[in-house]
Design brief:
Length: about 160
Amino acid sequence: MERMNQDKPGVLLPPPVLYGLCLVFGFLLKAVVNPPLIMASTFWPLGAVLLIAGFSVALWSVLTFRSHGTAVDPTHPATALVQNGPYRFTRNPIYSSLTITVLGVAIVNGNVWFIPLLIVVHVVLHYGVIRREERYLDNKFQENYRDYQRRVRRWL
C-alpha cells in the first residue's frame, strides 16, 4: 500500500487516464473482433442522452470544485471538502459521469467491449483511486469527512 505523498491522496492513476485507456482498448477490440449486436443503431438516441448527461454532470462537478478553489485532479492536494452541487448526491460525481459517458459511447458505437472493460476500470478505480482518496480525505478533514460519508453515498 502506497503511503500518502505529503498532502496528496497517492492515487494509482488519474481517473481520466483509466477511462481513456478503456476507450482506447474498447475501440481496438472492436476493430479486431466485432461481435454482432442486436440493432445497435436503434439505441443511439439513448447513447446520445447518456453522453450529454455524462458531460453535463462532469462539467457541473468541475465547476463546483473550482468555485471552492480546490483541485479537481486527485493527484493534487484538496483545499476544501466540497459537499454541494452534485456532491450532495454522490461523493464521486466525476467518476459517475465518466462511466455514464463511456456507456454512451458504447451504445452510440455499438461496442459491447466497453462493458467488461468498465468492470476492470471500476476495480482499479475502487482500489487504486477511491479508497486512497477516502483515506486521504479522512485524515485531512476528519470528522467533517466522516459525517459527509454517512450522509452521501459513494455512488448514485
